[in-house]
Amino acid sequence: MSARTFAKVGFALALIAPGTAVPQDGQPPFGDDTDTAYAETLWSALTEASLAGEETIQATPYEGTEPHGAVLQTLWTDIEVEGQEGMVVVKRNYGPAGISIEEVANNPGDSLASVTVMFRREEGYAPESANWFWAKYLPDGSLDQTPEGVPLAGRATGCISCHSEAEGGDFLYTMDRLS
Ligand code: HEC
Predict the structure, then answer these.
(1) Confidence of residue 65 (pLDDT cuts 50, 70, 90)
(2) How many domains does the chain have?
(3) Ligand 1 binding pocket mutation candidate from 163, 171, 179 (most atoms within 8 A of CB)
(4) Residue 114: which of 85, 147, 72 has the closest Cα?
(5) pTM for this structure?
(6) Whose CA is nearest to atom 3 of ligand 1?
């Protein structure tokens, strides 16, 4: 990661202090029942496509960056969710800090900390953020939560504010395929 990107990530991290996930009206902009149900369907689609779960396709692990993890794997393809086909990017986050690439490569199941996913939904779903649906899963497919207990699924504010700094306006850090 370049020094410039690193500075941007640091800046964005400072913006997402705990508490910002829930706006003043008390209604989170993400993580409601519709979002969690959709996230469950998305996880099933990922499992069926061997992109998550025990039978998952592996990829060469590489050294990661904050906040995702010490070692990462990134995969992308198109999948269908509720009748809509779209691009999906799956990032597997391995830890703890200090874990080696070799350890992950030899035993990925043991060190998987979380699976962060972006799925490109239909036009109009989230025009301000390139129509991405965001989700952060634990290795068993359940949803991780914000410190306030809001499930990380949907138009997740913390994910979006940092990814909005990615070059190309597509909210993708590892590629510029969509811009
Ligand atoms: C503070 C900044 C930051 C936050 C917050 C963040 N990410 Fe990321 N994300 C990154 C960076 C940097 C990368 C590129 C990492 C790499 O080198 O593989 C990335 C990569 C990804 C990728 C691979 C696609 C891409 O952009 O290259 C996915 C999927 C992803 N993040 C999902 C999420 C989800 C879901 C959340 C919220 C739960 C989230 N991210 C929160 C910085 C962030």
Answers:
(1) confident
(2) 1
(3) 163
(4) 72
(5) 0.88
(6) 162
